[in-house]
């Protein structure tokens, strides 16, 4: 494999009197040599030797630092590349100056964990070291978590990162198994992996739930008012809104557009959507309304299905019951002030246990009962205001759902006793999907992620 030359400060800044700038790669020695003033040229010294001298800025000829430089030639180095370690005595400022000099001479600043990654990719790490790697990953996690907790950054990314961490650990342990089959711990790995993956799944489900709750609290319960033309949808909306924004008329199908109102019903935020009747229609203008109605139903958290109790139930009404199958709904039997023709028994069948409210919107009857039913539904579902959600964005929710599916696939595979690397594919997919949420969609970034767990310069 071909790599460029990288450099980083490899001792924790501020720790101890000596700081090391480590350079690795083909040009490591020549870069160091260009800035080093000592008895001999670094390009000529034997491998694994240490040299005393000064660093000099080649441009200004200024002496930067008194140093001890180790020259380590490939392949017997940590990265299996040529490595130079510049030991400087100074503090943060001088070690940074040395690093800047090295970078100016052509090295690239190493990514976190990049030295270790190279060691791994160049085949330098064996099984026991790989296990050490896992330990290190774990150790770094706690720290990273503590830091993240203190950060003001979104709690969502924090949680997503933690989930990804769990997944990456699962993936990493599988990786070890694939690379070192003699290690023969497949069954142990599978059990462990399953455990971790189940944990992640549970958290995603929680996040999705809180997403829904958060959306409800922020945007209101998306409530669709549906019904045939002229049954009283606009009247219902008006009653609830108590201002005459929606147009009420005697001509069927006048509510051609979808109207929206935000209302607060006994502390329950509702976003009311009045739709044109859902029915087959020739009228283009109305058709737009009808199509929108289907869309509105798709997005609805709650449906208020309005029926005209002064007429017999029609096929359209029955079709509407079908359209709201599986949705949270309240049936409003309107116009009870008129002669009743609707067969209530049939309504009860169709309602499937959902609340039925008898109302006369003309006479302002039944509104209280309806409001009562709405708040009961809302509070019985126990929307928790404490978890005011991190997830709001539809893209995030979609990705969370996809990640959950991938995890379900993985769990299914473990159930089917599929080989562990098959399971790994789905776990990796879940990891990628979660990464997209926090803008870390890295297709070949798996290793980067794995190795970035290390401190810079390691
Ligand atoms: P939409 O087409 O479903 O929106 O129905 P509207 O709200 O526009 O109402 C259609 C007609 O029915 C209007 O003339 C309303 O005044 C009338 N209406 C609404 N509710 C009632 C009610 O409870 N009783 C009676 N008698 N008429 C009503
Ligand atoms: Zn209307």
UniProtKB/TrEMBL annotation:
For this protein, the record's Gene3D superfamilies field holds:
P-loop containing nucleotide triphosphate hydrolases, Probable tRNA modification gtpase trme, domain 1, tRNA modification GTPase MnmE domain 2
Which amino acid positions bind (6S)-5-formyl-5,6,7,8-tetrahydrofolate, per UniProt? 22, 85, 124, 458
Q: Binding residues for K(+), per the UniProt record?
A: 230, 249, 251, 254
Enzyme class per UniProt: hydrolase
What family is reported?
Belongs to the TRAFAC class TrmE-Era-EngA-EngB-Septin-like GTPase superfamily. TrmE GTPase family.
Q: Where in the cell is it found?
A: Cytoplasm
Positions of Mg(2+) binding:
234, 255
Instruction: Give the E.C. number(s).
Output: 3.6.-.-
PROSITE patterns recorded: G_TRME
Q: Domain TrmE-type G spans what residues?
A: 220-379
Pfam families recorded: MMR_HSR1 (PF01926), MnmE_helical (PF12631), TrmE_N (PF10396)
Q: Which cofactor does it need?
A: K(+)
UniProt keyword annotations, A-Z: Cytoplasm, GTP-binding, Hydrolase, Magnesium, Metal-binding, Nucleotide-binding, Potassium, tRNA processing
For this chain's record, the cofactor binding note is: Binds 1 potassium ion per subunit.
Complex and partners: Homodimer. Heterotetramer of two MnmE and two MnmG subunits.
What is the designated name of this protein?
tRNA modification GTPase MnmE
According to its UniProt entry, what is the function of this protein?
A: Exhibits a very high intrinsic GTPase hydrolysis rate. Involved in the addition of a carboxymethylaminomethyl (cmnm) group at the wobble position (U34) of certain tRNAs, forming tRNA-cmnm(5)s(2)U34.
State where GTP binds. Answer: 230-235, 249-255, 274-277
Q: What is its main location?
A: cytoplasm
NCBIfam families, A to Z: mnmE_trmE_thdF (TIGR00450), PRK05291.1-3 (NF003661), small_GTP (TIGR00231)
User: Matching HAMAP family, A to Z?
Assistant: GTPase_MnmE
What organism is the protein native to? Answer: Aliibacillus thermotolerans
> InterPro entries attached here?
G_TrmE, GTP-bd, GTP-bd_TrmE_N, GTPase_MnmE, MnmE_dom2, MnmE_helical, P-loop_NTPase, Small_GTP-bd
Q: Which gene codes for it? A: mnmE
């Amino acid at each position: 494999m071909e790599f460029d030359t990288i450099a980083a400060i490899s001792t924790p800044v501020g720790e101890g009197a000596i700081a090391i700038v480590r350079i690795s790669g083909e040009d490591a020695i020549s870069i160091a040599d260009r800035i080093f003033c000592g008895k001999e040229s670094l390009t000529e010294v034997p491998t694994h030797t240490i040299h005393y001298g000064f660093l000099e800025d080649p441009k200004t000829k200024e002496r930067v630092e008194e140093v001890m430089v180790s020259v380590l030639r490939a392949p017997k180095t940590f990265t299996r590349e040529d490595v130079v370690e510049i030991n400087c005595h100074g503090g943060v400022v001088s070690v940074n100056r040395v690093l800047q000099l090295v970078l100016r001479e052509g090295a690239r600043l190493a990514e976190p964990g990049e030295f270790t990654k190279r060691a791994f990719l160049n085949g330098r790490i064996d099984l026991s070291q790989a296990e050490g790697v896992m330990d290190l990953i774990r150790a770094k996690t706690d720290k990273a978590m503590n830091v993240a907790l203190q950060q003001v950054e979104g709690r969502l990314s924090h949680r997503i990162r933690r989930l990804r961490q769990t997944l990456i650990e699962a993936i990493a342990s599988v990786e070890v198994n694939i690379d070192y089959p003699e290690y023969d711990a497949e069954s142990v790995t599978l059990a462990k992996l399953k455990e971790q993956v189940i944990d992640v799944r549970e958290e995603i489900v929680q996040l999705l739930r809180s997403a829904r709750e958060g959306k409800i609290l922020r945007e209101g319960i998306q409530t669709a008012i549906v019904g045939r033309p002229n049954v009283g949808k606009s009247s219902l909306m008006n009653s609830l809104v108590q201002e005459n924004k929606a147009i009420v008329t005697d001509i069927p199908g006048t509510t051609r557009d979808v109207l929206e109102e935000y209302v607060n019903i006994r502390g329950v935020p509702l976003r009311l959507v009045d739709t044109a009747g859902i029915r087959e229609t020739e009228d283009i203008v109305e058709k737009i309304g009808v199509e929108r109605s289907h869309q509105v139903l798709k997005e609805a958290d709650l449906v208020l299905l309005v029926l005209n109790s002064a007429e017999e139930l029609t096929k359209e009404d029955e079709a509407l019951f079908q359209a709201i199958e599986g949705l949270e709904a309240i049936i409003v039997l309107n116009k009870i002030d008129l002669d009743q023709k609707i067969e209530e028994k049939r309504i009860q069948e169709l309602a499937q246990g959902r609340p039925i409210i008898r109302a006369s919107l003309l006479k302002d009857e039944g509104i209280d009962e309806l409001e009562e039913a709405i708040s009961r539904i809302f509070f019985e579902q126990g929307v928790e205001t404490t978890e005011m959600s991190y997830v709001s964005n539809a893209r995030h929710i979609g990705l969370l759902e996809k990640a959950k599916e991938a995890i379900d696939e993985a769990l299914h595979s473990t159930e089917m006793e599929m080989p562990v690397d098959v399971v790994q594919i789905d776990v990796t997919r879940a990891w990628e999907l979660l990464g997209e949420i926090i803008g870390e969609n890295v297709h070949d970034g798996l290793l980067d992620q794995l190795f970035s767990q290390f401190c810079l310069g390691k």
